[in-house]
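debug: dumping io for the single-chain case to check the tokenizer round-trip. Nothing else runs in this session.
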Amino acid sequence: MILAAEDPAEALEHRLYALGVHLDESQRELVAENVDILPLLGYGFDVTAPEWYDWMLQQARGTRLLIVDTLRRIHTLDENDSGQMAGLLAQLERIVHLTACSILFLHHSSKAAAMQGQGDAQQASRGSSVLVDNIRWQSYMATMSRDEASRYDVEEDRRKFFVRWGVSKQNYGAPIAECWLRRHEGGVLLPASLSEPPRRNARFRGEA
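debug: decoded output
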């Protein structure tokens, strides 16, 4: 289940249609049967309010994975206050404990980390470090930098079509290798195969 608190229903419909183009009939049926998307923009969803907490708890019952898009949209607390963020995560942990449903929330990286090309670092998340310290798993998506574009021979006007995905924190399980994704029509990200061009010799060596 996806709690979509950032985008309107119309935008979600367009994204689903764009995604469906890349799925076969059986895959589309699986998505229809197993994925519920609830548009919450404009409803004032706030998980720290008792009535909204109870509602989210009910949505989590019988659900294996609950995706929240985005964390900023489901509360009105101060992201930089470690105590408030610890309390917010405790609310989500309580739902996980009571329902055995995993919760994955989307969260923005800080502008400083993005500008310095450190979007793949654990501490790149915006706000209190509690948002990183108190979770069990964290992944990242980082737009291709100019240095990476040069390394893979990608032209500047195409650079932002590529993003690097990887895992920056994983408390359970084996490491997962990072990969490149490319943006296609409708914002759909598909695996991209990138390889560095062969290096040229610094100088030609031969007999005169």
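debug: round-trip ok. Residues 202-208 have pLDDT under 50 and may be disordered.
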